[in-house]
Specification:
Blueprint: H1 3-23, H2 33-40, H3 44-50, H4 54-76, H5 83-100, H6 102-113, H7 120-128, H8 130-143, H9 153-174, H10 179-198
Helix pairs in contact: 1-2, 1-4, 2-3, 4-5, 4-6, 4-7, 5-6, 5-10, 8-9, 9-10
InterPro entries: Homeodomain-like_sf, HTH-type_TetR-like_transc_reg, HTH_TetR, Tet_transcr_reg_TetR-rel_C_sf
Keywords: DNA-binding
Domain HTH tetR-type: 9-69
Length: 206
């Protein structure tokens, strides 16, 4: 990497760190690009050389943290675990992040998860590597008979994402960010789906 490219990446990381610091305070409007630039020690215009919009900046903040959680989860799981255990192992790293940075994740729910821009959530999940990781685990479970192979992996994945967002929303509403409690909520929901719906192929009526 050239010196110029290295400096550009360093500046980008400073902006991301400053943005996370501002968003941690839970005030999206207060996290202005002027304030972010001040904390990063750069000109306000420099932010837009790296991130075209404020939403793009937020998505990039999230993607970095999600990617870290996914990588840790995937590389520390036992390949012999069942599908639910593997999913919960990855989810536990994400819930830990939420517990450590509730302000940031509250902002994510408000500004990204419920963003009016179509595709904002999928873009975030795709760039972080979560979509591929989840799909791979689903397809693996279908091949070994844990999940119904006739079901669309994308349909199962979308349901998993919905259950995860529901869990986060439920715990944010009560300000309970205990990782074990969040995992217990999500596990119960996933097990209901796995045992009651995804694992069984509906029988045709005679």
């Amino acid at each position: 990497m050239s010196i110029r490219a290295t400096r550009r990446e360093e500046t980008r990381q400073k902006i991301l760190e400053a943005a996370r610091s501002c968003l941690e305070e839970g005030d999206f409007e207060g996290a202005s690009t002027r304030e972010i630039a001040k904390r990063a020690g750069v000109a306000e215009g420099t932010i837009f050389h790296h991130f075209p919009t404020k939403e793009e900046l937020i998505i990039s903040c999230v993607c970095t943290q999600l990617a870290e959680a996914i990588e840790k989860g995937l590389h520390t799981m036992d390949p012999e675990w069942c599908f639910v255990d593997k999913m919960m192992h990855v989810a536990s790293y994400r819930f830990t992040q939420i517990g450590l940075h509730p302000g940031l994740w509250s902002m994510i729910m408000q500004q990204v998860a419920f963003s009016p821009r179509k595709g904002a959530v999928n873009e975030m999940l795709d760039r972080s590597g979560l979509l591929k990781a989840t799909r791979d685990l689903i397809e693996e479970a279908q091949l070994c008979g844990e999940l119904n192979p006739d079901l669309s992996p994308d349909l199962i994945r979308k349901t998993l994402m919905a259950l995860f967002l529901f869990t986060v929303h439920e715990h944010m509403s009560t300000q309970n960010f205990d990782c074990e409690d969040m995992c217990a909520t999500l596990r119960e929901l996933i097990e209901v789906q796995t045992i009651g719906l995804w694992a069984r192929k509906p029988e045709l009526a005679v």
